[in-house]
């Protein structure tokens, strides 16, 4: 086992080891989409080829601000040779969730606002708000995907995840748009009660004890009134289900197409005056408001999700293949130490204690290493994302996918509660940026850059994104890419959105 793990670490590239097989290779299957950069960059084939220069590492930026809504800024750069292609992908669209035929429409604002269209006809620069109309619900969508062990999963997700978001919102659009009433517990059953205040709908204690309907013989007693489910919870649920459906589709697509590796996913949507940021992986998003930093995501790594992973290994030990232990120790245990007492912790603990070492503790730890070097089964450094269905421990049949969750954490920010200025922004970036720059450094960089720009210049956010990528990439010197104070720069792919929030106030 130790030789196997050493080999896995030696071949480690981009966060994961690609699965090996003597039977059938997915490389024999066709690609669903050829490798490309984000559509909104408008690059030619030659420009895409030139962007893959691992020595020059040119920074790509948005050429036309009208290609993205809200004058959104974007910049990216390829890695320093870690993988042949840029494994990051990005997508940004303005989408419409169509209302069901015959559904009532109760728009709260006027909907007749002028639209501007793009040369390619995609209509990304619409000026209307995320609002209700007879046609449906219009919302904004930004997404970043950081691939590993190939760019296939990231590319597929950049093309399809937004469709799943629309599909999931379609299920609840009529309820979400009707903000004057609480979401019904049962669709189509409580329509006659929806105009009744929630307090008046609560069952009496006697009726609760008899059952949900108060009729004799009801299957289960009901001891409490219905939970009040806010409308934003339906949007959160739609995003969570969209990630799960996307992950399932990637698994299905692998039987017909070459979909390599997996990817993290960071998505922001603007719906009815609120920003919803969904994150599965180790990308990060922060809001900078009046120089204040508001975290909008959490990185999911072997370190941050240690207890979840250990609990799964404890409950389903067969997933460990008899070669890993769910327990954590400060270091590898030597056989001569069996019978002695060593520090350890399990899924129930945040602190440490001592235990007597047994033979089974000699197995390789489920989580190996710490910080950015921590790996699940010595293979992958992220614990949430899409894809990786075929990922196995090197030279074994132990699947790692059961430990990797596709479910995102979703955070909500109400734009309407604040009047945002021109320098208040949402920053979204893959881990190539955050590996070398802290939240504070990013906020200082963006704030100082924007302060020196004309507030009416729509290019200011793209230029700020370019400056941020340049700071993280650094300059190529004799000892590699270097940034401020001669620190080592990022050798990873970097993708950055800078999204001005003041446009949300105008459209809310």
UniProtKB/TrEMBL annotation:
SMART domains: PP2Cc (SM00332)
Residues in the signal sequence: none
PROSITE patterns: PPM_2
Domain PPM-type phosphatase: 112-501
GO CC terms, sorted: mitochondrion
Chain residue ranges for the region called Disordered: 101-127
InterPro entries with a match to the protein in the record: PP2C (IPR015655), PPM-type-like_dom_sf (IPR036457), PPM-type_phosphatase-like_dom (IPR001932)
Annotated GO MF terms: [pyruvate dehydrogenase (acetyl-transferring)]-phosphatase activity
Protein known as: PPM-type phosphatase domain-containing protein
Source organism (scientific name): Electrophorus electricus
């Amino acid at each position: 086992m130790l030789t196997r793990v050493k080999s896995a670490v030696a071949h480690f590239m981009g966060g994961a080891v690609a699965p090996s097989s003597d039977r059938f290779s997915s490389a024999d299957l066709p690609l669903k989409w050829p490798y490309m950069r984000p559509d909104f960059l408008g690059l030619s084939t030659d420009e895409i080829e030139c962007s893959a220069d691992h020595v020059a590492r040119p920074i790509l930026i948005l050429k036309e601000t009208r290609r993205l809504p809200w004058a959104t800024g974007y910049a990216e750069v390829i890695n320093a040779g870690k993988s042949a292609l840029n494994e990051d992908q990005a997508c940004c669209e303005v989408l419409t969730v169509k209302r069901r035929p015959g559904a009532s429409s109760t728009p709260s604002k006027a909907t007749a606002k002028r639209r501007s269209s793009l040369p390619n006809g995609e209509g990304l620069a619409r000026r209307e708000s995320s609002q209700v109309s007879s046609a449906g619900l219009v919302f904004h969508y930004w997404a970043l995907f950081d691939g590993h062990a190939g760019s296939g999963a990231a590319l597929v997700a950049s093309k399809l995840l937004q469709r799943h978001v629309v599909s999931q919102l379609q299920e609840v659009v009529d309820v979400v748009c009707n903000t004057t009433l609480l979401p019904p517990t049962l669709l189509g059953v409580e329509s006659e009660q929806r105009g009744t205040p929630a307090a008046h709908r609560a069952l009496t204690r006697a009726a609760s004890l008899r059952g949900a309907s108060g009729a004799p013989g009801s299957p289960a007693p009901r001891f409490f009134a219905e939970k009040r489910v806010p409308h934003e919870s339906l949007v959160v649920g739609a995003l969570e289900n969209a990630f799960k459906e996307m992950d399932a589709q990637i698994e299905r697509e692998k039987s017909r197409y070459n979909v390599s590796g997996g990817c993290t996913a960071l998505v922001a949507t603007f719906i009815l005056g609120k920003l919803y940021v969904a994150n599965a992986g180790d990308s990060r998003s922060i809001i900078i408001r009046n120089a204040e930093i508001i975290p909008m995501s959490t990185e999911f790594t072997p370190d941050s999700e240690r207890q979840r992973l250990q609990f799964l290994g404890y409950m389903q030990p067969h997933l460990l293949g008899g070669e890993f232990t769910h327990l954590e120790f400060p270091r590898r245990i030597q056989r001569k130490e069996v019978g002695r007492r060593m520090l350890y912790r399990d899924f129930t603990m945040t602190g440490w204690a001592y235990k007597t070492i047994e033979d089974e503790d000699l197995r390789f730890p489920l989580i190996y290493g710490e910080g950015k070097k921590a790996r699940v089964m010595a293979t992958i450094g992220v614990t949430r994302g899409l894809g990786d269905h075929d990922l196995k421990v090197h030279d074994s049949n132990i699947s790692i996918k059961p430990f990797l969750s596709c479910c995102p954490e979703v955070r909500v920010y109400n734009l309407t509660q604040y009047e945002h200025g021109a320098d208040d922004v949402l920053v979204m970036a893959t881990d190539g940026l955050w590996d070398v720059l802290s939240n504070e450094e990013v906020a200082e960089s963006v704030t100082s850059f924007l302060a020196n720009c004309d507030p009416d210049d729509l290019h200011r956010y793209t230029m700020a994104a370019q400056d941020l990528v340049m700071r993280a990439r650094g300059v190529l010197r004799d000892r590699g890419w270097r940034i401020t104070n001669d620190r080592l720069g990022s050798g990873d792919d970097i993708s950055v959105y800078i999204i001005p929030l003041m446009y949300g106030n105008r459209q809310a």
